[in-house]
């Protein structure tokens, strides 16, 4: 079954079957099952197309561990976590496995060859062969051992894992992963104590899981899967940013109910939806699955799905019962459906076989297409005899109906107009007579005594009170009907029709014969081969149905052909008795030899390898070097039929048997079968569990996990349970969180609606739901709604209901709002107010209304005839503990809007996670011996153990302060540096600077669409911002309340765009609001020129965007250089000596501690900034408890905040942030896992710590006053410096005036003069941003160099050379301060030159201090005194490189004297660290601020 196609198709037909996982807004589940092979392929196939990358096994295992843990904590199963890896498969599956693995090996070889041809560097060593994901390989054996280690680690250190039963069914246990899961569920359901409302969730990507889920008939069932994207391959997202969806079986069931409702009253037997569902599963098998090929021409993308449904419905109308009888096919009823399905085959035959001869033989007369064509144009097909009957009826009928008939008085048959009919012609065409009689309002009367027929007017069908107009209309209708018969296509006689039918059948048989010869190598007329083929196919249908409903009934059976029989021929295999022999599965090495190609021989034990390539091998023909592929009507390469020979089991086993004894002990172990294992937490167990990868993963020092063989529950005296279990809750009675359509009334209809599914409009029909307004039907006014629900809990987001509080409701004219008012007696209470909307609000209502109707229709297939009112709500997002210890609902700060008719008043089963709880006694809320988080000043975020209770409200605690070291501030330092280096400007400043229109700037920096020669839309914009998507590219753009701002990187990028494609850029700037075509932009260019231009532009843009990091507007990150610097310092920091200490405290109030497991909402309310220090406070998840780290980025994902943390120590689940780290210290986490140590937002101060706090605050105030005094002194100094700067400028001008007297320079003077005027012009724009235009004049440049190069080398670093484009993560090390103080020391205050004061070619020194260079200072004095000298840039004649010279001399030859007279970290500012009078005479004393 085509995996993505099937999922996509049902998603298009039934748009609301899937739910995006959004925080806790999903149901709770009892059991989570992982089809592990989906994870293995996801974690190992990441670089299949990129042969230049290699993943080590350790990386693969770490990735798998992380993925498993992520899925576990996404679902958080309450009872069982079952992981199933594919073991040895049934023989029926091996054919497909063999085909896939041969094709995979061929594709890998082709990709490698292409890379070599492109000249790409291929890494040393063998790439990971995905065929290693096959039972029995060394990789799978290592995987099992590493998974055991991982499970032991999680159970020992993660409280959520420890409270769950963990079952592992490894590769050594025979059976496919998903079917091992289904066996477990079947046995569970068969138990007498089975809870019919058990909540199941299966993770897996296989479409078969959808059918398996339906086959259980348990409605509380969902499939977990990643977001599916179609079209171009998307850049892989970090796991924490990956969207996951739940496909709800309950929603799929309800949509299917709507599909089959139409036949509920038309069956000859009792209608049962559960039985129809079983039949539906069987019907879907014929479009293909892992064990059988699809029936010819039945392709999902070619309209097979509606054909299957419609023919199945028609078959049920004509059978005496259901086809699927608890997993057994009723072959008689199945044959009825095949007969209806065969009409689809005839249509395909007619479409393929039409030629000139077809029309010459008049086959249109008896073809299905001909019949449809005649129906479309309103023509009949009649024999000449039938045409004569029409001639007999017409004159009598027209005369009769034209008369005035008193039908009310026609009480006897004799009074009713009758036409006698005689002759054999009537008897031979009796069927036709009945047809025309029905169409003309007559009925046929047969006289048995005379054996004659007559036509009688149906007077009961005539209205006795009809008006004259109605009478005329009735007569006109009859005339038209008669005319239709008169203009029919005529056939001579029945013999002619029979001849045409015979020719038709012959051509149909020839068409099928051609198929069998081309595909299967034998003739349609070969009865024995046809019998074998069709019986084998019908056997296959029964084997698959047993596999789904009862488990594997035969390990050795398989379908022996690459293709299925024609639909109409399947009936030939019906007449048989089907029995299966259970047999036994292959051994792991036998399967490896059966499915692997010679290219993957390194995965097989060495003793067997010669069998794959030795010319003398008896099974060499099993391993061809090339295989033939046949797409067979499919579109994708992976869907092609791989025409490989089928492995002969006996030959294979015989050939291997001579080598079996040569296997090593380890290999023999791999070739044996194993058992399922269960892992349980046992606090009494405390031992060391050795790591299978020593040096990569550390030993588990305190292992509390025990593993033993898992034994399934007994089936003695029990049978598998089919259908719905008794006591199950459905529809509106379903358990909390499980969606249903039935909570709101609606009508439904299948229509073409172009629903937007997976970012693309659907081309198929969708089930549209037409919503009924229950509030309007119940005559509830807006006032009634407000009084009943305002301020209370209602349910929104139908059908995925969530609790919300109603804030307001409006109909576009009046709004009702809930307002809190203070009451001296009762405190705060809610009051409902209403008011008229102003014009802006009315306009907004109309816009919202229009948007809602459009979005619900396109995105969900929900049709809203009108939106009478819109409600505003705030959804419940959790519970928070109040000061009394009670847990109250908390609400999101984000308001949501819904149409009133989609509001649900109440639900039967409420979600316990959001039910408010009264306060518990302190000993129940915090039991003695339990661990909590301390929020006091002494050890904020530290571990606290409850020792006892001082009173009913106070606790005794033992506090563990795990570290005595001060937290490193490297993160904050680097955040400030990044802020200074990446400067942003308002958009209007950028447009002025680049001299482009503001509107064009907005378009070119986002999406700018043009159409190419094929009228396809091409985006030639930079896409560094997106208002609609609420996104930006880090380092390039940001959004604030005043609008967009752009960085220097954006300026460079735009400049590069304009320089590279100058003419194209200018022409884009001239375009209007419409989407221009490339021909309109360049009307005179040739097609080849335009094609080349578009290719060059899109290629350049693709390269530019390669390194973009696109995030939401609220996201931010440190640069790559800063992240690396933080990692460097943290590695040093963790090496420092440290110690922990314990302290016992009494009378600690509850506010001073935190139980993180029940404080998720509180923790999510924290604010985080770049550089903050954080600590991991949950005892579950991917990170060890109390691990510390530094915030290096944050991203908003929906309503949640993901924090990117660089942890102090490496973690198993960590990553390197896309190459920005050397070690695996990085991880993105939800903010509920962390406590902010830098911004301590929940800190509790005792009386003692409050005194300390006040003392510190007093010290800060005194320090602030001292700083204010220094600022005042500094202001006076700056006024003096301004005067000096003015004098300096006067000197410059005088020098230039002298130079301008030279006639040779006269033509250049005026432009230079204009430039000089802007050198020191600094304008503070409305936004408050200072914009500096860097001086370009040569004289000014030399003087600036003279001023600033008088300081030592620390001041000579060149500024960052921004690349034309690229991420802001590549700041050269020399640009930013790197010589931070040793870890553990207090760093000095860093005084940097304000960015707007930085001179050209000047970087901030490491410690913010510029030491004076004596020689350079003297040369500056000399330069200023020589006003009329020639000051300009010359070229060094010896090196050929530009060099600044003053009067022909290199000005700063001796400027490398360091801080010889000052301590590295002593003092403040430019003059501290040495005596002021120590400066050499004649030097210019200038602080950083003076620039």
UniProtKB/TrEMBL annotation:
Residues 1275-1286, 1313-1328 have a biased composition (Basic and acidic residues). Transmembrane segments: none annotated. Residues 1255-1331, 1424-1491 are annotated as: Disordered. It is found in: Cytoplasm. The keyword Nucleus does not apply. Residues 1300-1311, 1424-1444 have a biased composition (Polar residues). Residues 271-682 form the Xrn1 helical domain. Residues 921-1148 form the Exoribonuclease Xrn1 D2/D3 domain. InterPro entries: 5_3_exoribonuclease, 5_3_exoribonuclease_1, Rib_uL2_dom2, SH3_12, XRN1_D1, XRN1_D1_sf, XRN1_D2_D3, Xrn1_helical. Keywords: Coiled coil, Cytoplasm, Exonuclease, Hydrolase, Nonsense-mediated mRNA decay, Nuclease, RNA-binding. One of its GO terms (biological process) is nuclear-transcribed mRNA catabolic process, nonsense-mediated decay. Residues 723-917 form the 5'-3' exoribonuclease 1 D1 domain. It is an enzyme of class 3 (hydrolase). Residues 1166-1236 form the 5'-3' exoribonuclease 1 SH3-like domain. Residues 1-227 form the Xrn1 N-terminal domain. GO terms for molecular function: 5'-3' RNA exonuclease activity; RNA binding. GO terms for cellular component: cytoplasm; nucleus. Its EC number is 3.1.13.-. Residues 468-514 form a coiled coil. Belongs to the 5'-3' exonuclease family. Multifunctional protein that exhibits several independent functions at different levels of the cellular processes. 5'-3' exonuclease component of the nonsense-mediated mRNA decay (NMD) which is a highly conserved mRNA degradation pathway, an RNA surveillance system whose role is to identify and rid cells of mRNA with premature termination codons and thus prevents accumulation of potentially harmful truncated proteins. This is 5'-3' exoribonuclease 1. It comes from Lachancea fermentati (Zygosaccharomyces fermentati).
